[in-house]
Amino acid sequence: MGSPLASWPWASLGSYKYLLYGPLVAKVAHAWRETGSLPLDSWCLHLLLLLVLRSLTFQLWFSYGNMLFFTRRRRVVKDGVDFRQIDAEWDWDNMVILQTLIAAMVANSPWFPGVAELRSWDPRGWALALLLHVTVSEPAFYWAHRALHRGPLFSLYHAKHHSSPVTQPLTAGFGTPLEALILTVAVGAPLAGAFAAGAGSVSLVYGHVLLFDYLRCMGYSNVEVISHRAFAAVPVLRYLIYTPTYLSLHHREKDCNFCLFMPLYDALGGTINSRSWELQKEVDQGMNDRVPDFVFLAHVVDVVSSMHVPFGFRSCSSLPFSTRLVLLPLWPVAFAFMVLQWFCSKTFTVSFYFLRGRLHQTWSVPRYGFQYFIPSAKKGINRQIELAILRADKMGVKVISLAALNKNEALNGGGTLFVSNHPNLRVRVVHGNTLTAAVILNEIPSNVKEVFLTGATSKLGRAIALYLCRKKIRVLMLTVSTERFLKIQREAPAESQHYLVQVTKYQAAQSCKTWIVGKWLSPREQRWAPAGTHFHQFVVPPIIGFRRDCTYGKLAAMRLPKDVQGLGSCEYTMDRGVVHACHAGGVVHCLEGWDHHEVGAIDVDRIDVVWKAALKHGLTPA
Fold it and tell me: Which residue intervals define the domain Fatty acid hydroxylase in the entry (predicted)?
């Protein structure tokens, strides 16, 4: 049996833990039904509303802290939040559940008669609560916190909280029941004193609790939000309010900066880290900002998937994308952001991770998938991509890889347009499709003698066809353009050209069980495949698997090496740690230090070279 107050009693319930709010909801519903109106005199109602507002406070601070396009330069700890930390903090809101239940018991207990009277406002209560916070909550928390860092108490009750290497607003709620109870006393003592003195009010409860959460989230945000100039102008402020830098020093070094919100108590206790203000100034001035070595230039797929961004909901972005009904009410908000981006946005940083000392970032062009097919939008999109490439070049980025439609042949010739317009680029522009082709080709079993290829005259289709015919594999190339087919066929060695066969109808593949799909297939078109067919894919979006007697491969992807650090979000529908092959192709280009651009047509002779380089660096097929 474990130590008391070291684990949560509802840990085994999973998402069913939210049923603990059931009695409060039932009581509000009963009062509503009895009175015929919203029971504004019910503490249960106010506790539920406060729960919503507290959750919103944590979420908004989390979103702000992870909006790298706003906060990248002022991040205190430059490391990323990985999946291990995300999973450990998954139930961060256990603290909020506990505090809500305790508040409900107090509000409905005969032992606290002062709480029964609902007064909307009393300035005396605000003054008393402030006094009690400074004289009771702050010193009590300080000494309790110092005690948690001593001997067995740390390993039993506090080490779990410090196991998160990078603080986040959600880290503020992550810990053991004992830590949550200490925080409950800290936030509750001023309220208890105000109500005991007959000066409590509903506004005090809302204001005090939300301000408490706001300051906790601010400290844990890992983004310096207080200007060093404020401390220089009014030095005493240093002892009245802590900063994210101040708390991060405590979180990493564990032997200093123990205060709740007021460093005054660290000064009195002799536990202030002497580097707190100097480091805070450095972070605030953005002196620790770093230039990425590699950039993956992506774009938004659609309105629904735009809610999958890392600065949205961590429970979504840390898992492969799927449509979640709970997010549908936010669709109008996401749509409004799409419109806003169309008129007044530029390429922005979405996420990052580290690989072997190199900083890799994902940037996004503020355009959505369907907009790439609007003729009038073509020029503007190319301009956005071009500006991103020029920005990367000016910063000193080594490699920038174009994702999905950003390298569309009809849009910019697979990136050729930008290299031609700017021949002196230092940044290497790559489309990554050489590795995409390699992944698809290495999925095909060695005993296959015939394949059916759709999207056969596209950039990828051409490379796949030319590679396979050299291996003496018959390729049924679906295309109505004899001219384009013959052009590709002439590129093949003379002794291999007869392995390339033009077909114009899906019926031609009725006996072929290996389909390589580069063009979307409807259910009617899929029916021509014989039972047991496997569909390899390089079409975006992926085809829907209508055939139960066939198997469907995923989009070409590779798993990043095991030594990747700070990766905490999934790339669209990819599993954790897996990226699209074109992303991986750019990574290999960067790791190898190749100094050539990879744009336009795929060099078939380099497919095996790139594949071997990927495996050498620890990337594996997903």
Answer: 131-271
123/121 Cα distance (integer angstroms): 7
Give the phi and the psi of residue 295 in degrees, each rounded to 5: -130, 130
Could you tell me which residues are beta bridge partners of residue 297? 363, 402
pLDDT value for 323: 85
pLDDT, position 93: 97
Note the pLDDT tens digit of each residue in 564-618: 999 999 998 899 999 999 999 999 999 999 999 999 999 999 999 999 999 999 9
475 with 498: CB under 8 angstroms? no
State the amino acid at position 289 in one-letter form.
D
- Residues 115, 197 contacting (CB under 8 angstroms): no
**pTM for this structure?**
0.93
Whole-number Å distance between alpha carbons of 265 and 504: 80
Rounded alpha-carbon distances, angstroms, from residue 119 to 32, 41, 51, 52, 115:
20, 9, 20, 21, 9
User: What is the pLDDT, as a whole number, of residue 326?
Assistant: 86
Mean pLDDT for all residues in the chain: 94
- Given the structure tokens 């536990």, which residue do they identify? 271
pLDDT of 1 > 60? The answer is no
Quote the CA–CA distance of 104 and 549 in Å, as a whole number.
56
Pairing type for strands 500-503 and 474-478 reads parallel
Query: What string of DSSP letters covers 185-253?
Result: HHHHHHHHHHHHTT---HHHHHHHHHHHHHHHHHHHSSB--S-HHHHHHSGGGGGT---HHHHHHHHHH
Relative to beta strand 399-402, strand 428-430 is parallel
Rg of the chain's alpha carbons, rounded to an integer? 29
On the CB side of 79, CA atoms within 13 Å amount to 14
DSSP states of 432-470: -HHHHHHHHHHHS-TT--EEEESSTTSHHHHHHHHHHHH
Q: Pull the structure tokens for residue 501.
A: 């066969």
Percent of the chain with pLDDT over 70: 99
